[in-house]
Amino acid sequence: MSSTTGAVILLVVLAAVLAIAFVAFWVRDKQRADEEKHDLGRIQQEPTHTDAEHRHPS
Fold this sequence. Notes:
Layout: H1 3-45, H2 51-54
C-alpha cells in the first residue's frame, strides 16, 4: 500500500467519524431542545407565584 492510498484511507475514515459525530450531536441537541420546549409549555401552564407569596413572616 502506497503512502497516498494510506492518506486517502485515513481521510475517508476521518470524514466518516466527523460525519457520524455531527449527526449524533445534532440528534442529541434536538432531543434536548424538544424536552426544554415541552418543559417550557408545562411551566407556562402552571400558576405563577410572586416572591412575596413565598416569604415567611419573620
